[in-house]
Amino acid sequence: MPFQPDIVVENQNPIVTNGLSKLNGYHAVPNEPKNTSAQPTNAAVTQSGSYHCHSVQLSIETQIDIPNFTDITEAVRQVVTQSGIRMGTVTVYSKHTTASIVINENEPLLLIDMCQRISKLFPSDEYYRHNDFSIRTHNMNPGETPNGHSHCQHLVLSTSETIPVVEGQMTIGRWQSIFLVELDRPLPRTVSVMVSGI
User: Fold this and answer.
1) pTM for the whole structure
2) The CA-based dihedral angle spanning residues 17, 22, 28, 33, taken in that order and rounded to the nearest 10 degrees
3) 30 burial class (0-12, 13-18, 19+ CB within 10 angstroms)?
4) In a domain, 23, yes or no
5) Whose CA is closest to 161, among 97, 89, 110?
6) Which InterPro entries match (predicted)?
7) What is the CATH number of the domain that holds 175?
8) Helix-strand-coil split of the chain, %, nearest 5
9) pLDDT category, 154, cuts 50, 70, 90?
């Protein structure tokens, strides 16, 4: 069963300036009027309006079983709802090199299978130069722990996922859940959620 955390939302920043989006000094092109005369079958109605960005940081404490999957779907869904954005995308991004963001099914036995396969692919008990503190000289911090396997596991997973937002809802599939995958050890983690659109 995936861990269901108390997720702390920090740093809410809706960013809008005169119909332009402003992101750290970069400006987007003003919105062009949308031509809605031709409507494809099964497509949502095109909406026009100002481009908006809504950015939230989620703080998550991961658990002891490594690797582990923390389901953050509902927290992301709440950010999308609170953004007020009707048409666009939501990007969920891990700010870590040993914790990934993935979309998969939240089925307990499958999660166990995935944890076992990730662990077998890059076992923690193999030799990693990154873990050899007698030769490693870069990015050494107080309390550094051997986690070369975690970085290697991250290579086959993803740092982010982007999901379409249609009519104010994530268009996530029936069996899809959004997970933060902890690959290192129990740590405080930060996940950036940005909703962009109109």
Assistant:
1) 0.77
2) -30
3) exposed
4) yes
5) 89
6) UPF0047_YjbQ-like, YjbQ-like_sf
7) 2.60.120.460
8) 20, 35, 45
9) very high
